[in-house]
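Write out a sequence, fold above all:
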Amino acid sequence: MQQEANPNATAPFLLIQKPQELIRLFETLIDQKIREVMTTNAPVKNYYPDEDSPFLSSKDVEKIFKVSRQTINDWRKSELLQSVKIKSRRFFFKEQVEQLRTQLAQKKSVPG
């Protein structure tokens, strides 16, 4: 007769490092990952799901710029990007998105 493992049983947990050292280690790893993501955050090339359409959905724009929906809404409200609302969905002009993507890429490449 086999004994089933008790999910409530606690196994001993051995910390090799002090909690403060462990926290610093995690913070360092997180910082490294953030820097890695920021440096490899190149714009997505040719990310246009429907080549024939002059419009992109909000989701498409989010993926292209790797930003949140709120950022896209802020850009729309500040007239950085114009959009068209059709029923309950909002669409952006592909040409304007490409222009903004180029502008942002140029700003990132300028040392400052």
